[in-house]
Structure formats: C-alpha cells, structure tokens
C-alpha cells in the first residue's frame, strides 16, 4: 500500500512546500517549522532531520513508486465538512500534483471522521491544536495506526 512504501512517503514529504503554504495562507502570522515543538519547548531539536522541499526528488520518488508497484501514486485526503482546511488541502493537492501524485480531496461529517480515527479506519489524522504549523502547514499532527491496516482501513485511506 502507498502509505507504507518508502518512496511514496518520501514523495509526499519532499513535494510539500511548507514555506509556500505559510506565505499563501498564513496571513503573515505563521512561521514555517519542521517539528511540533517551539524553540522554547525543552523537546525542540535544533536539527530534527526532517526532509525539506525538493521538487526534483519528489518527482523521482513518485516515479520510483510507480515503477516498483506498477500503479500511480494516489490517495485521498479527507477533512471534516465545514472545516477551514479546504484551502490548505487544495494547495497541498496542487503541490503534490506537480510531483506526479494524484491526491483527491473529500470531506466527511465530523462524527464519522472521529469514528474512523477511534476505530482504526484511517492511517493518519492531522488536527489544528495549536498555533504552530507542522511541515504540511497544519498544526500538530498525530498518527493512529491500526494493528492490521488491511483489516481495518477502508479501500481508500483517509488522511
């Protein structure tokens, strides 16, 4: 599956231009960051070893994924209906497309989305819980993995 393939994950990470997200949608009040910890937090790392934006490497990783799997790199980014994340989702979708990644954006009701997270029907959940944006432009994110993703995830992963 795409979410566990190293080249797929790398393509998404290095095709995400967080500086562009912040400058486009940040209203001049957000700063880019490469971790959930502010500089005043004791867990802040001076170099968290997080990959930075690299359009060429993103294209190469997406091509390697396709060559290895025989399938294009594609997934669905799902957000809560009525949330203010649609602009970010569409901007990320456009960035990923430049790397050859086909991301669909869909919206679900909040109750259904929370149920999906609680019952392990999703792999990753990004939430806005503070004013510090993550690498993808959202704020703080956490991952909930199912013990057996093939048994509990829907055919289209919710991100």
What topology does this entry show?
Blueprint: H1 6-14, H2 18-25, H3 55-69, E1 74-80, H4 86-98, E2 102-108, H5 110-118, E3 124-126, E4 141-143, H6 149-152
Parallel strand pairs: 1-2
Antiparallel strand pairs: 3-4
Helix pairs in contact: 1-3
Describe what you observe in this structure.
The protein is α+β, with helices and mostly antiparallel strands and 159 residues long. It is built from 6 helices and 4 strands, in the order αααβαβαββα. It has one domain: Dipeptide-binding Protein, Domain 3 (Dipeptide-binding Protein, domain 3, Roll), CATH 3.10.105.10. α1 runs antiparallel to α3 (55-69). 22% of the residues are buried.
In short:
The protein is of the alpha+beta class and 159 residues long. The chain is built from six helices and four strands; from the N terminus they run αααβαβαββα. The strands form two sheets. A two-stranded parallel sheet has the order 1-2.
List keywords for this structure.
two-stranded parallel ribbon; 4 strands; Dipeptide-binding Protein, domain 3; 36% helix; alpha+beta; disordered C terminus; two-stranded antiparallel ribbon; 159 residues
């Amino acid at each position: 599956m795409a979410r566990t393939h190293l080249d797929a994950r790398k393509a998404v990470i290095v095709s995400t231009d967080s500086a562009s997200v912040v400058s486009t949608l940040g209203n001049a009040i957000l700063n880019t960051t490469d971790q959930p910890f502010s500089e005043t937090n004791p867990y802040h790392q001076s170099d968290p070893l997080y990959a930075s934006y690299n359009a060429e490497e993103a294209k190469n990783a997406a091509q390697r994924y396709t060559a290895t799997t025989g399938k294009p790199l594609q997934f669905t980014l799902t957000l809560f209906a009525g949330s203010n994340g649609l602009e970010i989702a569409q901007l990320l979708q456009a960035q990923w497309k430049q790397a050859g990644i086909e991301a669909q954006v869909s919206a679900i009701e909040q109750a259904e989305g929370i149920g999906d997270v609680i019952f392990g029907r999703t792999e990753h959940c990004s939430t806005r819980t503070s004013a510090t944006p993550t690498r993808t432009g959202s704020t703080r994110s956490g991952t909930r993995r199912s013990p057996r993703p093939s048994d509990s995830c829907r055919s289209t992963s919710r991100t």
